[in-house]
Amino acid sequence: MNPVNYLYLSALLFTIGATGVLIRRNAIVVFMCIELMLNACNLAFVTFSRMHGNLDGQIIAFFTMVVAAAEVVVGLAIIVSLFRTRHSASVDDASLMKL
Amino acid sequence: MSAAAVHSLWTTAATAADPISKINAPKIEYAQLSPTLIVVGAAIVGVLVEAFVPRKSRYYAQVFVSLVALVAAFAAVVALASDGYGTTKAHIAAMGAIAVDGPALFLQGTILLAGLVGLFTFAERRLDPEAHGNRVDSFAAQAASVPGSDSEKAAVKAGFTTTEVFPLLLFAIAGMLVFPSANDLLTLFVALEVFSLPLYLMCALARRKRLMSQEAAVKYFLLGAFASAFTLFGIAMLYGYAGSVSYARIAQVVDGTVTNVDPALAGTMGNDALLLIGGAMILMGLLFKVGAVPFHMWTPDVYQGAPTPVTGFMAAATKVAAFGALLRLLYVVLPGMRWDWRPVMWAVAIVTMLGGAIVAITQTDIKRLLAYSSIAHAGFILAGVIATSKDGVSSVLFYLAAYSFVTIGAFAVVTLVRDAGGEATHLSKWAGLGRRSPLVAAVFAVFLLAFAGIPLTSGFAGKFAVFKAAAEGGAAPLVVIGVISSAIAAFFYIRVIVLMFFSEPRPEGPTVAVPSPLTMTAIGLGVVVTLVLGVAPQYFLDLASQASVFVR
């Protein structure tokens, strides 16, 4: 199968993730969409690695996974603390500060 | 390339020689990486301090460790610079991952000094009234407890403090030290996350107004992670374009001067669509960190909600690190496509300068005002970036150094003006401050004049250098717009000064807390640097000029 198809899939996943970030209201779902974007990047890296025939892309994918894991830890900590204070994880409710 | 050839990359015939014996150990120049290594090491020591030192003495241990580490790392930067690593011996260390050159060392020095001054404001414990006989700082007693709950009251009563902010600060500084010196895109991305994640956490830790603080952290985190996902996709595209993430290699492919091409790679690299999309997406991520319009939406909310010492540190050091990375990306990786990125950066610089200055006029909160002012300043610095010349680099370096001290000093002054609810950040409460405490108001006026770019302050020297470089680099219209938006910005800075000195104090106005020597040092250093860089900038301009050559 032509590896370029995986690039299209990766771009599609990235777009779905980005759209989700923009239209979803729950902070956890927004965050999951961001994770989807990171995984779309991983797919692109691995595909390019296969196309180029060098291993850089696969190694970068491992780094991305570690970074994504660290981001999950920090992100969930922040979202959970907000949820415990407000009893809501909606990003629309968090509007104390406006212009 | 054929499937069998690809598979041979990660599989090997059983009869082959032991592959382990063939792995060459990487060559790491520890001495040249010492500034970063010292800070990372101290951050890890800080984590151990949290685990093993009794609660009573943790604060002192943490401040001591952080202070020693930052001073030692700064000494290491100075030693490297005086050894000539900034000029003649500039080279690429750690197997191509880190560049040790003039801009990197200059910015690392700036970040370390900003971190040191930031540390002083973090460690301040005399502004809030004592809680149950314990001195408290600007950070929550216990971050995990819900504001106003019993567990928080118990934590306050027991005298807990979040001393974890000191290791977090050090981790953030370590990431910022790597960010402007990263020499491949993977290091760039890892450094971006290493300095962003601690900042997200520190934003949520305010002792007063925790709700706002947590809200700021969520906004910063979600938008920051969104932006870094874009950066990562951009990196993937550039990797697809060049078959490598090394800056030098990508620059060669962009220029078309690549020499040794793997036959497998030749068929897949060099697709211009990937280059344009990838470059734009990485720029997007960096401009987000810089706080340039149209990626600035997070700035006012996060600056307002975060604990003020964190805001000051973040406003100064993040900008330095992000502009360093932006300069290296545009000047080392993508100089071959400057005809593509210059028009875009022109547009971004213009809307950033005008947008920041115009929206700032309507602000009624001092922290939001300073946030919009920082957006306008990002636009001025972008004008220097667009110059694409050696003067452009040196003027940006100088501007960043000058700006970071003014910013931390200004936010440190904001922590002093307080009422019963903590910091009194609403502008109306600052009315008549000059009558009640002339010294604090005068110091703040110096910082505001420096922001406005009035002669004899560092702001003027910086702006002059940046605009001069931009004009010589063929961006004269940009300079005109820059001067116009400086004039607009001057209006709201002067308005605050007028408010402080020429209006009647309100009867129930805020009081000015008397800080410990820590904050006094931070503010004093800010004033001294502002005036010295304003009155006698030549030495520092020369220093920045010497440091303005990138290694590639």
Structural category of chain B is: mainly alpha
Counting copies of identical and different chains, the oligomeric state is heterodimer
**Rg of chain B, Å, rounded:** 24 Å
Give the low-confidence spans of chain A: none
CATH C-level name of chain A: Mainly Alpha
Find the CATH topology of chain A.
Helix Hairpins
- Overall shape of chain B: it is globular
The overall pLDDT average of chain B reads: 92
What structural class do helix, strand and pairing data of chain A support?
mainly alpha
Q: So how many helices of chain A? A: 3
The percent of residues in helical segments of chain A reads over 70%
Helix content of chain B: 55-70%
Please trace the helix and strand order of chain A, writing H or E for each element.
Answer: HHH
Rounded to an integer in angstroms, the radius of gyration calculated over CA atoms of chain A is 17 Å
Order of helices and strands of chain B: HHHEEHHHHHHHHHHHHHEEHHHHEHH
Strand content of chain A: under 5%
Q: How many strands in all of chain A?
A: 0
**Total helix count of chain B?**
22
What is the CA-CA span between the terminal residues of chain A? Answer: 52 Å
Keywords (chain A): Cell membrane, Membrane, NAD, Quinone, Translocase, Transmembrane, Transmembrane helix, Transport
Pfam families (chain A): Oxidored_q2 (PF00420)
InterPro entries (chain A): NADH_UbQ_OxRdtase_chain4L/K (IPR001133), NUOK/Mnh_C1-like (IPR039428)
Family (chain A): Belongs to the complex I subunit 4L family.
Account of the protein in words:
- Chain A: NDH-1 is composed of 14 different subunits. Subunits NuoA, H, J, K, L, M, N constitute the membrane sector of the complex.
- Chain A: It comes from Streptomyces monashensis.
- Chain A: It holds the Pfam family Oxidored_q2.
- Chain A: Its main location: membrane.
- Chain A: It is found in: Cell membrane; Membrane.
- The complex is a heterodimer of chains A (99) and B (552).
- With 99 residues, chain A is mostly helical.
- Chain A has a single domain, classed as Helix Hairpins, CATH 1.10.287.
- The radius of gyration of chain A is 17 Å and the shape is elongated.
- Helices cover 78% and strands 0% of the residues of chain A.
- The radius of gyration of chain B is 24 Å and the shape is globular.
- By secondary structure, chain B is mostly helical.
- Chain B has one domain.
- In chain B, strand 3 and strand 4 form a beta hairpin.
- In chain B, the strands form two sheets. Chain B has a three-stranded antiparallel β-sheet with strand order 4-3-5.
- Chain B contains 22 helices and five strands.
